Amino acid sequence: MEQSLFIYNTLSRQKELFRPLVEGRVGMYVCGPTVYGDAHLGHARPAITFDLLFRYLLHLGYKVRYVRNITDVGHLEHDADEGEDKIAKKARLEQIEPMEVAQYYTNRFHDAMAALGCLPPSIEPHASGHIMEQQQLVQEIMDHGYAYESNGSVYFDVEKYDKDHRYGILSGRTLDNIKDASRELAGVGEKRNQADFALWKKAQPEHIMRWPSKWSDGFPGWHCECTAMGRKYLGEHFDIHGGGLDLVFPHHECEIAQAVASQGDQMVHYWMHNNMITIDGKKMGKSYNNFITLPQFFAGEHERLERGYSPMTIRFFILQAHYRSTVDFSNEALQSAEKGLQRLMDAWKALQRLAEGQKVKGQPQVEMKYVEELRQKCYDAMNDDLASPMVISHLFDACRVVNTLLDKKASITAEVAQALIQVFHTFAFDILGLTVDTGASNKEREAAFGAVVNMVLEQRQQAKAEKNWALSDKIRDDLAALGFEVKDTKDGQTWTLNK
Amino acid sequence: MEQSLFIYNTLSRQKELFRPLVEGRVGMYVCGPTVYGDAHLGHARPAITFDLLFRYLLHLGYKVRYVRNITDVGHLEHDADEGEDKIAKKARLEQIEPMEVAQYYTNRFHDAMAALGCLPPSIEPHASGHIMEQQQLVQEIMDHGYAYESNGSVYFDVEKYDKDHRYGILSGRTLDNIKDASRELAGVGEKRNQADFALWKKAQPEHIMRWPSKWSDGFPGWHCECTAMGRKYLGEHFDIHGGGLDLVFPHHECEIAQAVASQGDQMVHYWMHNNMITIDGKKMGKSYNNFITLPQFFAGEHERLERGYSPMTIRFFILQAHYRSTVDFSNEALQSAEKGLQRLMDAWKALQRLAEGQKVKGQPQVEMKYVEELRQKCYDAMNDDLASPMVISHLFDACRVVNTLLDKKASITAEVAQALIQVFHTFAFDILGLTVDTGASNKEREAAFGAVVNMVLEQRQQAKAEKNWALSDKIRDDLAALGFEVKDTKDGQTWTLNK
């Protein structure tokens, strides 16, 4: 832990030196997906952002417990308490069990995350699997007087809480702001005040996902799960809570209120938020119906996509921006990310061939000092609130050096080359989490090898033209022994490799 | 559904015609892994057996809801109620959160299942995520008088149940047998009778995995989860419950008792059990400490393994035996399975090249009748209690026909060839779930292509010997343009493909 990592804390609105609560260990909670549809590009961003942080903390030597939830219940539509449970709705439309929908999309989410090179979290708790823990949280909040029951549902009393503590410290809103913003909405219904939010909702008769409670057969309010599961797996106080910037209000604001109302103080030390992916300048999201899913990106199957983009291209595209900046979707930007990634990978492959050094007379030497500075510049970038674009730019600088070497315009010793390989590996693979795309590489190799087979067949063609039947037959037989089936057709020779 | 599927019902001890409770739909529950260690060969067997059934039911056109649980709590050691919770024990040893251990091994289990070609179940519920449902089950059993509380724990009253119903109908044991067998064990402790089993266990102070209940802070007895989760996701009555033969007693016997005691009648229509994997004639299992894990098999890293075996070899090895027979582990048997699988896959590849038919003068024709009989024989085998070894033997017969065709000793029309390809695909891939091992195939292709590059380099060598510098240089330049780097060394030419 010789590096000093600074991260931007949304709560203090400044970059702070990261100091874990327990020496050498980090507890980290990140809001995961609601599994009623495929993850889209907007979901890839927090996954990759906090994967970058997870990888960097592990690289620094911390033991990290990384918890990311699966929301399979209780997420209300339009962030309004009166909405219908999204998963139950989908299930009713499809006439299947909600958990079957949740499982299907959970599996697809996992596949997409693996493709994007995101390490699996240490624990991936399901909201539906922690109903008791959420009920317990609700009871504690009631016991402290910050919640009330109304017609079988339980609501958080924001007004009362705001008097004793302050509601809005994360988002910077005040209760008056919030009241103003919600003045035009429909009547408060069961709630005392419009700003109050549901901790437990009584289920309508047709509602499928329901659990018994002392208040009613129902389901927990959306904000409960993260507070209950974060506390269960990371303790009453833990280091980092992450998520998308759109979760600051109301979700994370409500989480803070729930923590303070139940245990008397805040649970989270550093709040971190990634900015949004935009499309045509607007946030990409389910509610705007302007999203492109990850499987659509990988397959190129969406009207806005000129073609498919590999998972690593998506990852590189996201890492090329700082996580606190917005990123606008465009085919041009993705294609430029693809080229940038290719440039890095080409340099990586070339570096392997330089591993034993290269001596070119009269050309300057790549010094160890250069590699050491490169390494420290990469660390400095990561330490400055995970400035991945800076890391990439330093690696591009290393690519230029590699190209100079390839052009025989510089020398390098084996020792320096090894050090350069190590820096490259540490930052490009271990920390940025990039991988060499072997699928594409296989295709390229096959194409190159296929061209060599054609060279041999041309030789055979020439032998035939020269009536050198012995050579022509020998070539055919040698190829056949290797598994190549050569056919002489009217249009020339064709071949297939039967392996 | 034109096929009549017969399956062996452990409950009736005979093969029965399978008739689903709801036309066109099948509900199927299979006991899944306890995630406190890597899955071993003994776990691969139920996974593959019920994957075969799942695939066949889907092929027949049923909509199947396949539920397989993850046991992440409550499985007591040595099947004795006084044992320590296995997962909590492991976690304490490793000084980490039990759910972190469970998540780690769940992820590894999923990886192994995907490698073995097992389709993911429709729902994969966690025992720890269904504590309330299990408590509800326990309460219902108490309400009907078949359970009693003792010192904060709740036990099933087997004696009382046996009087009203009969305990032991699945395993064929009687309560007297069971009492005789357990007479020598330690005292009954909190239980009225030795045969009683725990429905809820009060947690010891040091016990980490615990949930509140009206009886005590504790955890559910092992047998509860399957009854509670089967009912939740498949209903009070469902079609098939599967698992290993070692689960018949006590686990499935207790499940039946719990169902009858709580809802008044049995839940499951067909009970299916796969037989054991043996090693040196003894069941392979955790408790015997004689197991080889799946990752060890794939990597060849265990003293009993002569080398590694691919996941598909393991799958084929298991499918080559009927699921109700024992299978003895040996390197010879695995190597023979590997050869058999290779034979099938070679025939499959050869079939592709025969797709447009083949005419050989004076040789007999492969008739459509042969293909139709082959198809029906494969169906008959599957319909006879999933006789996968018979299906494989019929496919081997088809391999012989393919080889006759390859030897130009038979003719086939395109239409018949297509039909043969279709039968092969249906049974080998869709139903048996085999896949072509592309990893090995890539290596083989690379080797064949590499040999062609060497052919070209030999030509260059000869050109040099003949002082044909123009040709020698042209070959080198052509290869370089494709990405091949050719070096002339003292020992001859070497090459690398930089892609």
Characteristics:
homodimer; 499 residues; alpha/beta; Rossmann fold; Isoleucyl-tRNA Synthetase, Domain 1; 3 domains; 4-stranded parallel β-sheet; 4-stranded antiparallel β-sheet; 16 helices; elongated
Any chance you could write out the topology, listing elements then pairs?
The structure is a homodimer of 499-residue chains.
Chain A: E1 6-9, E2 14-17, E3 25-30, H1 41-59, E4 63-68, H2 86-94, H3 98-115, H4 131-143, E5 147-150, E6 153-156, H5 158-164, H6 175-182, E7 197-202, E8 218-220, H7 224-234, E9 238-244, H8 248-263, E10 268-274, E11 277-279, E12 282-283, H9 294-299, H10 311-319, E13 327-328, H11 331-353, H12 368-383, H13 388-406, H14 414-431, H15 438-465, H16 469-482, E14 484-489, E15 492-497
Parallel strand pairs in A: 3-4, 3-9, 9-10, 11-13
Antiparallel strand pairs in A: 1-2, 5-6, 6-7, 7-8, 11-12, 14-15
Helix pairs in contact in A: 1-10, 2-3, 4-7, 4-8, 10-11, 11-13, 11-14, 12-13, 12-14, 13-14, 15-16
Task: Characterize the structure shown.
2 copies of one chain form a homodimer. In chain A, strand 5 (147-150) and strand 6 form a beta hairpin. The first copy, chain A, has 3 domains: 6-274, HUPs (Rossmann fold, 3-Layer(aba) Sandwich), CATH 3.40.50; 294-431, Isoleucyl-tRNA Synthetase, Domain 1 (Orthogonal Bundle); 439-497. Mean pLDDT of chain A is 91; it is low at 75-83 and 90-95. In chain A, the strands form 5 sheets. A 4-stranded parallel beta sheet of chain A has the order 4-3-9-10, with helices on both faces. Chain A is built from 16 helices and 15 strands. In chain A, helix 4 (131-143) crosses helix 7 (224-234) and helix 12 packs antiparallel against helix 13 (388-406). Chain A has helices spanning 41-59, 86-94, 98-115, 131-143, 158-164, 175-182, 224-234, 248-263, 294-299, 311-319, 331-353, 368-383, 388-406, 414-431, 438-465, 469-482, and strands at residues 6-9, 14-17, 25-30, 63-68, 147-150, 153-156, 197-202, 218-220, 238-244, 268-274, 277-279, 282-283, 327-328, 484-489, 492-497. By secondary structure, the first copy, chain A, is of the alpha/beta class. Helices cover 47% and strands 14% of the residues of chain A. Chains A and B meet through helix 3, helix 4, helix 11, helix 15 and helix 16 of A and helix 3, helix 4, helix 11, helix 15 and helix 16 of B.
